[in-house]
Design brief:
With 464 residues, the chain is α/β, with parallel strands linked by helices. It is built from 17 helices and 25 strands. The chain folds into three domains: 83 residues, Udp-n-acetylmuramoylalanyl-d-glutamate--2,6- Diaminopimelate Ligase, Chain: A, domain 1; 206 residues, Mur-like, catalytic domain (UDP-N-acetylmuramoyl-L-alanine:D-glutamate ligase); 141 residues, Alpha-Beta Complex (Protein-Tyrosine Phosphatase, Chain A), CATH 3.90.190.20. The longest helix has 14 residues.
Length: 464
Amino acid sequence: MNPLSLTELADIVDGRLIAACDSLDPCVARTVSIDSRSLQQGELFLALVGKNGDGHDFVDHARQRGAAAAIVERSSNAALPQIVVSDTRAALWRMAHWQRQNSDTLIIGITGSVGKTSTRSMLHGVLSTQFQGQQSPQNFNNELGVPLSLLQINADDEFAVIEIAANGPGEIARLADLAQPEIGILTSIGPAHLEGFGSLTGVIQEKSQLLAALPASGLAVLPDHLAVLPGIRTALNSRIITIGAGPHCTLAGNESERQSGGLRFHIGEMNFHLPVQGSHLLNSALICIAIGRELGLSDAQIQTGFDRFRGMPGRANIKATSFGCIIDDSYNANPLSMTAGLDLLRCQANVHRRIAVLGDMAELGPESVSLHRKVGHRVASSACDCLITYGPLACEIARGAHTAGMSASRIACFETISDLMPILSLWIEPGTAVLVKGSRSMRMESIVAALEADTQASPIRHAA
């Protein structure tokens, strides 16, 4: 955040400053935190009121951690300068709006049903080879995360990649209006958060709002097959770059070969390499190349950025084990990302058995059962040898797989992790790849942790 005195900050958030610092040594706010546990010396503490807690209970803890000041809805006895406002969430947005209006940083907005975080991280790495910039931390992509991401931008930053997500209609339009991106990225569209959007048409309409927010002088980057959708096409009012493998793409790339060491692909005569596996990352890489070239980077500089890329935690991370490997894709799931995970499982080399451990996909609304069964059909048609499901909805994946021809002897359904682990361990043999994937609410990472702990304690030697 651009440095501000507390008096200036109080004016921006329409607040009342109390217990001000000595005028000879005025307090200056540079960064904002909403969590007193991770607050760093000199940061501004924002006391938010939420369903799971009240930040006002931690103002004194923020003081102990070295907070410069606090923005609150009610003052406390803590020996700390405080700015009292009527609504701390509104104050957060006012600060972020002021920051955006007073910054020349190039804002790159990114949204999509899958691939947002990986693309964001990859693009930040590519652009950072030549420019100073920021990216949304972790999964800061909602009504709190986006303004906090904007507030971490410094005066010296030349770019910022801001992730934008939504669970219901109107959220992306509001967040995009705050961020005011000049470049907009749409990674993908699929059936996700259907409880909030009602249908795939609703998802398309929502995601298109990021592109609609771009100025006429801006740039939209998206897969070619999405650019032709009526709901997307009507939202486009800026220049566009389409990416993909087809001849009509502005930037077309094709996978050269599949290797355990990563993804190799080419654009014309130029070859590129990512040090991670997964054909689903090809579009992410093409998006980075398109924007990198647009901003003047050479292909060699872009490749340097690719060389630095590492997979995000819980997102298609391949972990070597005593029996083979675990594909840790546990962070989240929807039908589109399930398909990508199964493709990655299918492509694992030097394995003799492939096991998919799949959990519920949340927030799919009335189509939930049919979408789970479609994933089951995909399991049956893939190279998956065994399927284990976890959760009541995931049982529909099992039903879909069996209906599509997968033998019942290779399918098992469970309601608890403790029940599924013995069967999973029994089915694992040397040369096995295990995919673990499900929605965030299923905490699939605990399966990964349990599997890693079991194999470390006693390497698996048995065969099914």
